[in-house]
Amino acid sequence: MKESVSLQAFNTFGLRAKAHQIKTANNKDELCTYWQNAHEQKLPTLILGGGSNVLFTEDFNGIVIRNCIAGIEITEDEQYWSVYVGAGENWHALIEYLLEKNIYGLENLALIPGNVGSAPIQNIGAYGKELKDVCAYVDIIELSTGHVSRLTNEACQFGYRDSIFKHHYQQGFAIIAVGLQLSKKWEPILTYGDLSKLSLETVTPKDVFGSVCSMRTSKLPDPTLTGNAGSFFKNPIVDIRIAQHLKAEYPFCPQYVQQDGVKLAAGWLIDQCGLKGHQIGGAAVHMKQALVLINKDGLATGKDIVNLAAYIRQKVFERFGVQLEPEVRFIGQHGEINAVDAIS
Ligand SMILES: Cc1cc2nc3c(=O)[nH]c(=O)nc-3n(C[C@H](O)[C@H](O)[C@H](O)COP(=O)(O)OP(=O)(O)OC[C@H]3O[C@@H](n4cnc5c(N)ncnc54)[C@H](O)[C@@H]3O)c2cc1C
């Protein structure tokens, strides 16, 4: 009989999906060994960090390998701190650890759940800062051979919630470390939310950290209490003509001009469709933040969340002619599946 273990504690949606086995890799050799063993047994593998950006649509018929490679090494020169971080370190704990040492530059990205090794994959971002602004390089390993290579910031091809890791280096590769370069010349970014209330003259990195943490805890549901994966959909980027048309019809539609079009706020579009609180099975749209889908009473299935996401996508398209795409990665029984196809 096949082994079966619960993934509930390993995904922030708190879904009760199962896998054959869960392995914890504390170094790159273990990572390769677990992957190669699974490969020999012809079982699918999934490298997992904190499980805060995945949706298990059903049970996973394979081996989950948790990347828990630890370690933080700091060097410095006159201008920069260079920080080499193992992929299994917790992202928020890293920020706290560095701030305690008076090393700053990551505070706008505080309280984003998950591991350091996952941060480059979707180029995590919040409150005006993205990982790409501080990432010097990413170390990856080829799991069949143990060969390690280093990708420079440019080679990572970072974009909005995007990087090369979403298009290449998916099967058979894992991120084992991230190199950060933090400038000693602190330039606070105070553009968003309550940060704009802070004084540019007196503000400190710890002030920014505190303000970001309190904004996030007041706005976003805590995954340890209510299962969720943060923003479920990406903010859509549309052609300027579509944006102008929307603005004419909906003067309050938030719009942000980008190099490649105009970014709309997915949460606003969902909210305008009256979907806050909308529920399908155990899945619901969060009452305060329409972009967040929740596992309402801890009883939702992956299918409930898929059905709710499909309903939202359809309603937003009917009203605004805009197609939403999930930010969350969908994991089916054999591995990642196309999230857009799953909700179309
Ligand atoms: C409450 C909440 C708030 C959030 N807020 C934000 C936000 O403000 N900004 C933002 O950008 N994101 C946000 N997120 C999303 C999430 O925190 C990030 O995407 C985070 O980087 C995911 O990290 P993780 O370790 O949990 O990844 P996981 O969910 O474990 O994995 C995500 C994907 O990466 C792959 N993967 C993981 N580790 C590795 C590795 N070492 N090598 C190769 N592949 C790997 C997995 O197979 C999976 O496909 C939020 C999530 C929650 C729950």
Automatic annotation (TrEMBL):
<feature type="active site">
    <location>
        <position position="327"/>
    </location>
</feature>
<dbReference type="InterPro" id="IPR003170">
    <property type="entry name" value="MurB"/>
</dbReference>
<dbReference type="InterPro" id="IPR036318">
    <property type="entry name" value="FAD-bd_PCMH-like_sf"/>
</dbReference>
<keyword id="KW-0131">Cell cycle</keyword>
<keyword id="KW-0521">NADP</keyword>
<dbReference type="InterPro" id="IPR006094">
    <property type="entry name" value="Oxid_FAD_bind_N"/>
</dbReference>
<keyword id="KW-0274">FAD</keyword>
<dbReference type="GO" id="GO:0009252">
    <property type="term" value="P:peptidoglycan biosynthetic process"/>
</dbReference>
<feature type="active site" description="Proton donor">
    <location>
        <position position="231"/>
    </location>
</feature>
<comment type="similarity">
    <text>Belongs to the MurB family.</text>
</comment>
<dbReference type="Pfam" id="PF01565">
    <property type="entry name" value="FAD_binding_4"/>
</dbReference>
<protein>
    <recommendedName>
        <fullName>UDP-N-acetylenolpyruvoylglucosamine reductase</fullName>
        <ecNumber>1.3.1.98</ecNumber>
    </recommendedName>
</protein>
<dbReference type="GO" id="GO:0071949">
    <property type="term" value="F:FAD binding"/>
</dbReference>
<keyword id="KW-0573">Peptidoglycan synthesis</keyword>
<dbReference type="Pfam" id="PF02873">
    <property type="entry name" value="MurB_C"/>
</dbReference>
<dbReference type="InterPro" id="IPR016167">
    <property type="entry name" value="FAD-bd_PCMH_sub1"/>
</dbReference>
<dbReference type="InterPro" id="IPR016169">
    <property type="entry name" value="FAD-bd_PCMH_sub2"/>
</dbReference>
<feature type="active site">
    <location>
        <position position="161"/>
    </location>
</feature>
<feature type="domain" description="FAD-binding PCMH-type">
    <location>
        <begin position="15"/>
        <end position="185"/>
    </location>
</feature>
<keyword id="KW-0560">Oxidoreductase</keyword>
<keyword id="KW-0133">Cell shape</keyword>
<dbReference type="GO" id="GO:0051301">
    <property type="term" value="P:cell division"/>
</dbReference>
<keyword id="KW-0132">Cell division</keyword>
<dbReference type="GO" id="GO:0008762">
    <property type="term" value="F:UDP-N-acetylmuramate dehydrogenase activity"/>
</dbReference>
<keyword id="KW-0961">Cell wall biogenesis/degradation</keyword>
<dbReference type="GO" id="GO:0005829">
    <property type="term" value="C:cytosol"/>
</dbReference>
<comment type="function">
    <text>Cell wall formation.</text>
</comment>
<dbReference type="InterPro" id="IPR036635">
    <property type="entry name" value="MurB_C_sf"/>
</dbReference>
<dbReference type="GO" id="GO:0071555">
    <property type="term" value="P:cell wall organization"/>
</dbReference>
<dbReference type="InterPro" id="IPR016166">
    <property type="entry name" value="FAD-bd_PCMH"/>
</dbReference>
<dbReference type="InterPro" id="IPR011601">
    <property type="entry name" value="MurB_C"/>
</dbReference>
<comment type="pathway">
    <text>Cell wall biogenesis; peptidoglycan biosynthesis.</text>
</comment>
<keyword id="KW-0963">Cytoplasm</keyword>
<dbReference type="GO" id="GO:0008360">
    <property type="term" value="P:regulation of cell shape"/>
</dbReference>
<keyword id="KW-0285">Flavoprotein</keyword>
